[in-house]
Inverse folding.
């Protein structure tokens, strides 16, 4: 369930592509961009380690349905969920440098769209 009207599921903002390799609508909220980046990272880690949703669920103590919904962009995970996943997988999932994409450049121009 969204935390506010601006916090909708990332998958709701897809204009084209197959999740998680998608393009988001120009007006997609920041949270959708972070959700896509996190889903891409989670998918890459799971693929590299040959982990299923159920395997990640066992490692993290979460349900496989939750893992699947995050991976498919159906929900925005909260900070506690991201932390549990990172600890369980022993890697960073949070898109820590994504904020640069939304920061105006030094000339005062508008930030580029991801």
């Amino acid at each position: 369930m969204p935390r506010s009207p601006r916090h909708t599921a990332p998958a709701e903002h897809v204009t084209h592509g197959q999740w998680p390799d998608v393009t988001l609508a120009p007006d997609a909220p920041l949270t959708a961009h972070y959700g896509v980046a996190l889903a891409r990272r989670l998918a890459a880690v799971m693929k590299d380690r040959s982990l299923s949703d159920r395997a990640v669920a066992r490692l993290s103590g979460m349900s496989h349905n939750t893992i699947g919904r995050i991976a498919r962009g159906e929900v925005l995970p909260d900070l506690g969920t991201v932390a549990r996943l990172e600890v369980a997988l022993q890697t960073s999932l949070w898109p820590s440098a994504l904020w640069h994409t939304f920061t105006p450049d030094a000339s005062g121009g508008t930030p580029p769209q991801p």
In short: The mean pLDDT is 88. The first helix runs from residue 30 to 48. The beta strands are 14-18, 21-24. The two ends are 25 Å apart (CA to CA).
